[in-house]
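Practice set, problem 2.
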Amino acid sequence: MSTTVVLETWILFLLRAALFLACRNYLLQNLYHDLQGLSTERSTTPPASDNAEDATELDSLPQPSTANAPATPVPSIMKGKRSFHSVLSRSLFALCFEESCTMFGLLMCQALGLLHGRTRLLNWNISLSVLLTSILVLIPLSYSLVLSDTASSSIGAQARQRPSFGRILLNTIPVCLFLFFLEYIPLPEGLHSSSFIATTLSRLTVLGTIILGGLSGFGAMTAIWTFLPLFGLNKGLPSDEDISIAEQGLERVRQDLARQRYEVQKLQSSQPGSNAGWLSNVVTSVRGDSRLTSATQELRGLEALESQMSQNVEVLKQRQAEAKYAKTMSGKLLNWGGRLFAIYCVYRIIITAIDLVVPLRPRAAPGEANPTGADMISTWLAYSLSLVSSGDIDPEKLAAVSRQISLGLVGVIILSSIRLVLRGVARALKVTSRNLGASLMLLILAQLMGIYLLSTLIQLRTSFPSPPSQPGSEAEDINLFSTLPEYELFGSLFDGSFLLTAGASAVVRWFGDRIGGVSGTI
């Protein structure tokens, strides 16, 4: 390895470290606190005792005052110290962000002819290996660690400690099962390379294509249902009186819920102790268990009712706020932009369904650039941009720009669904801690960011096909895109998952509008 390659690699590693620290210390400040608020949106009544863990990262908030119980003292050594799962999620997100930026930077260096060819190829393989390891091993292992923290989150000191070696070893079991089943994902036909990284990347791309297609379908249907009244249920504007009546009903249910919780606690505390006689224990436990079971079932019913009513109140407030905002100038502009985007989503669904059943364009063979690869609207936008920039229109450049615009619009559709998906995950897992919920969401974002980056690079390969190999070519002549599989191997899979998720989301929202009246929430 030449001195130039070593020097340039060291410079790239220093840039990696700078990106990692900048993302972890600055970029994540606002994002993590936004995720903390998102993890507690539309939550039910708070638990009786505050979680001491949340207080470590929220020192600026006022301490809650209680009438009967004194505040639990927090050791001075723990004040201002982040929990382990918070440090873990921040570090993994920063690592994925840093490697993603590095890979895009290497592609820019290749386009501009910067750095030595061996340097680009070496650091490209390093970034690709680190990103694959993070997506397939480190982040799934962190899921297990964060989710296992929910069981001990009520004990603040234990939740902040680093996990033991035995606990980490136990949490590797789900990761090993995930990797085991990943090996059973069939490789697409036409895959030329059989290296470990190539096959692993292809299997991950199959899984990631399904996930991204599902997010795109869900985001497209969300935009359609939100901005096109033809599809959603046309509801009137809720008045202040409607919201007040709903809040009063919710308050009565919460009072009943508090009384029922107190009754359940009394029944639990009245269970026989170990010093009582055997016969009295049996008689008392049988009688008490039946009452406790009945009270617990009633408590669960009240909790479900309270959750549904709380969700309805939030929907009424949201609809009223959106209606007031829609009357402003910025609201009108946003609605018009949203309607245009929703119309594009309708067109995208229709053209994808037709193209999946009866292909409108010939499928390109592996290794060849797709002649079109974009929808009509993206092609029209690219054509308009080419007219503004210059009079000469190169068909190949026009096709490349149209594919990139189509890819960007798919990214916008995915971003429009991320917030609802993250909120639904936090609700489904019943995460009550703000920090635990934010850490879990940050891990999901890191994994989705890595998967979307790899899928984007694979799709961009059609815009930058590999140069023809020449006799005696060296490593510096290798196009970095040639290390990635062809997108044509995964296009139909994306279209299928996109249509299935869009159809399923439409059915769920239609029934939700007619039955529950809370469409648009998860």
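Problem 2, part (b): a different protein.
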Amino acid sequence: MKTPKAAAAAALVACVVTLGACSSDKNDEAPATSTTATTAAEATTTTAAAMADAPTAEELNEVLNRATDPALPVEEKIMTVQDGDTAPELFETMTRSKEESGAVFQVVNPVLPGYTPNSALATVSFTLPERPAQTAENVEFVYEDGAWKLSRSWACTLITNTVTPDQVPAMCQSEVAPAPAAPAPAADAEAPGEVAADTPADAPAEN
């Protein structure tokens, strides 16, 4: 079995939205000012709620533990990986891989905002028997169907790097980039052994 590898690139995009309102003494402009104030208050409340709902390292650890718990029925495991309901065989592979390798995964702080409002990025430390601990950074979790889940791409990354190719579930195989097509032969290439029709014959030797 191959040693798990962790390689991921992350880019965080910051977006700043500025709201402005102008005061006026005209009565017909008063509703606009009220609407702007209400919108700003709602935005502040929404932002506060999103921050309060951000996952903790402990919660994300529970996601990983449940995904590979041999005692947990697959009906519950599918709630731990994005699109898990479309590939229930994924969890058998994950569980068997963890048991056979003896790998231990641990989410460590900090947990950061993800690429979208409904995602989070975390650092995962993993160890194998008699090997030094390694870390995978920017492991993505997504909030879906009222629960935090390991993203599909990261679940497939963990699997494809810890099992043999024939054990990789179909869901993960579909994400492998196709091999580049072989270049087409040049149109004007001559077949082996052919001689161009206009090639002049050798001139007779002069005495």
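Answer key, part (b): The chain is about 30% helix and 15% strand. Confidence is low (pLDDT under 50) at residues 1-52, 176-183.
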